[in-house]
Amino acid sequence: MKITDLRVDIHGRQILKGVSVTLHEGRVHGLAGESGSGKTMTGLAALGLLPHGARATGEILHNDRNLLELPAKELNKVRGGEVAMVFQDPATSLHPMLTIGRQLTEHMRHHLGLGKAEARARAVELLGKVRIPGAGEAYGRYPHQFSGGMRQRIAIAVALACSPRVLIADEPTTALDVTVQAGILRLLRGLCDELGLAVLLVTHDLGVMSAVADEVSVMKDGLIVESGPRSHVLRTPDHPYTRSLLASLPESPLAPAPDEERS
Amino acid sequence: MSLLTIDDLVVEHRSPGRPVVRAVAGASLTVSAGEVVGLVGESGCGKSTLARAVCGLNPVTEGAIRFEGQPVTPLGLRRRTLTGIQMVFQDPYASLNPRRRVGDQIADGLRVARGSTVTPADLLERVGLPRDFTDRHPHEFSGGQRQRVAIARALAAEPRLLIGDEPISALDASAQAQVARLMRDLAVDSGAGLLFISHDLSVVRLIADRIAVMYLGKIVEIGRTAEVWDNPRHPYTQALLNAIPLPDGQGTLPAELPGDVPDPANPPGGCRFNPRCPHVMDVCRDKEPDFGPVACWLHEPT
Ligand SMILES: Nc1ncnc2c1ncn2[C@@H]1O[C@H](COP(=O)(O)OP(=O)(O)OP(=O)(O)O)[C@@H](O)[C@H]1O
Ligand SMILES: Nc1ncnc2c1ncn2[C@@H]1O[C@H](COP(=O)(O)OP(=O)(O)OP(=O)(O)O)[C@@H](O)[C@H]1O
Ligand SMILES: [Mg+2]
Ligand SMILES: [Mg+2]
C-alpha cells in the first residue's frame, strides 16, 4: 500500500497536510507522533472511514487502485478483507450487542465463504492466539463481559479473521500489560515474517516501536517530520521532536543521566 | 488513618448461564491522603473491577471498602460525584457524555466543587489542550485529547480520592510524563489520594509512592516504588519488569510469560501463579500464600 501526499481537512481545518507512507509486504511500518498529530486520521483515510465533513485528497494505492476514488461498494469489499483495521478505541471495532463469536465468524463467512463449524473453529483458534483465556467459552460472551485489554485483543482477532494482506493497527496494545503485549507483538511479527502481512502500526510507545517496527515515521501537526529505518530513527534521530520524545524516556540511550528528579 | 481501606475484597461477576467470574479474589490495599498508589498487573486480572467497586459501581461480594472511615455503598453514577471520589474510566466514553460539549461537562464537575473560581478553559489548559476546545463534542478529539478531557472533568470536582484507570494510555511519552505529574501534584497538594492504574510501568515509577502488583484477582506484591522497581521479589513482578520493551532501536521482542493466561472462572489451586512460575515448589501447588507484602512462598514472613 502506498499513501502519497494525503491531505485531509475537516470543515476547512487542515488535519493532514501531505502525508506519504509506503507499506511493504512482510514489514511493519511504525507511526509515532504527538497526540492529535493525525495518526488515526491517516489510518482511517486508508479505509475510507473519515468522519463526517472530512475531505481527503492525494492517493492511497493498493493493488493498483486508488482507494480514495473507489466507490463505496468496492471499498466495502476491500475493508475487512484485504485491508483490516484495529481501531484505537476497541468500542469502535466491536458491536456491544453481539457475541464476540458472532462478530468473528460473520466476517469470515462473508469474506472467506467458510461454513459455520469451520468459522467457529477458526474463531476459537484466533481467540487463543490473542491470549484470551477459556477461548471456547469466551466465544459466546458479549464485549462488556471482558476487561479493557481483552476487548482490545478481541478487536485484533476480528481484524485478523479474514487473513488480511494489510493491517492498520492503531495503538493496538495500549490496554495491555507488558507480558501480554509481548505475546501480541510476537503474533504480529510472526504474521509478517511467515505470511507477508504488511502492517501500519500506530503507537506512541517507542519501546513497542523498537521491538517490532522495521521502518519508523514520526508525525507532528499533520506532517511526517522524520522517517527511516528503525535503528536510525530511534538511535540517531534527526528531528528535534523525535529527540525530545526519546529524551523523555528514562530507558532510552538518549535520556539524560539517571533521573534523580523525585525521591 | 487511611483515606481508602480495601480489606480482603472479593468481587464476582455473574451472568446468566455462565460460570461465576471471581474477578477480585481477596485483595487488600490502602491509599492515604496525599499518597499516590500505582496498581499494575496482567490484562484481565481485576484492576478495573476493583476500581469500580471502590466507586460503588460493582457490588462487593465479600470483604469491605471504607472511604474516610465510612463503608462504600452502591450508588448511582449521579450521586457518586457527591462522595468525593472521582474516577477516570478506562474507556474515555464512559467518563464523558458524547452528546454534550466538553466545556459544559467540565462545568458540571466545577459545580460539585462549590466556590471554585477555575473555569473549564483553565482546566483544559492545565491538561495541555487549547482553551477553545470547550466548544467541541467528545468525538471531535483524538484518542489522547479525549483522555485529557476526561481527566480535566474528574479534576474539576476536586475529589478527595481520584482513581485513574489507564487515564493516559494514549498519550506520547512526553505528554504522559506531564499529565501524570499534574495528576500527582494536584492530588498531593490538596491532600487527596490517587489510585493510578496503568500498564505503563515507567509512568507508575515516575509518580507512585507505592506500587501494588495484581495477579488473577490478588495483590501479589506491594511496596515502596523504588524497592519494587529495583528489587522485585514476586516472580510475577520480575517477569513484568523484564518484559518492558526498550526503545533502543535493536528490534528485540520482549519476553512473554510461559503458559496460558489464566481464567478467573477457573483459577489454578495453590498459588495462583504456580503454573507459570519458574521457581515453583511443591508447597506452591498445595497452599495459597495468603500473606504480604509479597505473596510468594519464597518470601514467607518469619
Ligand atoms: N471529528 C472530528 N472533527 C474535527 N476535528 C477532529 C475530529 N476528529 C479528530 N479531529 C482532530 O484531528 C486531529 C488529528 O486527530 P487524530 O485522531 O488523527 O490524532 P492522533 O495522532 O491519532 O492522536 P492520538 O495519539 O491522541 O490518538 C486532532 O487535532 C483532532 O482534534
Ligand atoms: N460484566 C462482566 N461480566 C463477566 N465477566 C466480567 C465482567 N467484567 C469483567 N469481567 C471479567 O473479570 C475479569 C477482570 O476484568 P477487569 O476489567 O477487572 O480486568 P482489568 O485488570 O481491568 O484488565 P485490563 O487491564 O485488560 O483492563 C476478566 O476476566 C473479565 O473477563
Ligand atoms: Mg489516535
Ligand atoms: Mg481494566
Can you tell me the residue ranges of chain B where pLDDT is under 50 for at least 5 consecutive residues?
Answer: none
Report how far the terminal alpha carbons of chain B are from each other: 26 Å
Radius of gyration of chain A: 19 Å
> What overall geometry of chain A do the principal axes of the alpha carbons give?
globular
The count of β-strands of chain A is 10
Mean pLDDT across all amino acids of chain B: 92
Number of helices of chain A: 11
Q: Can you list the ligands bound to this structure?
A: adenosine-5'-triphosphate, magnesium ion
Description:
Chain B: GO terms for molecular function: ATP binding; ATP hydrolysis activity. The complex is a heterodimer of chains A (263) and B (302). Chain A is an alpha/beta fold and 263 residues long. In chain A, 39% of the residues lie in helices and 24% in strands. Chain A has eleven helices and ten strands. In chain A, strand 4 (54-62) and strand 5 form a beta hairpin. In chain A, helix 4 packs across helix 5 (116-129) and helix 5 (116-129) packs across helix 7 (148-160). Chain B has 302 residues and is an alpha/beta fold. Chain B has one domain (4-84, 159-299): P-loop containing nucleotide triphosphate hydrolases (Rossmann fold), CATH 3.40.50. In chain B, 30% of the residues lie in helices and 21% in strands. Chain B is built from eleven helices and ten strands. Chain B has helices at residues 47-54, 77-80, 92-95, 102-112, 120-126, 143-156, 173-189, 201-207, 225-230, 235-242, 282-286; strands at residues 4-13, 21-31, 36-41, 62-67, 70-71, 85-88, 161-165, 193-197, 210-215, 218-224. In chain B, helix 4 packs parallel to helix 6 (143-156) and helix 5 (120-126) packs across helix 6. Classes of the chains: A alpha/beta (263), B alpha/beta (302). At the A-B interface, helix 7, helix 8, helix 9, helix 10 and helix 11 of A face helix 1, helix 6, helix 7 and helix 8 of B.
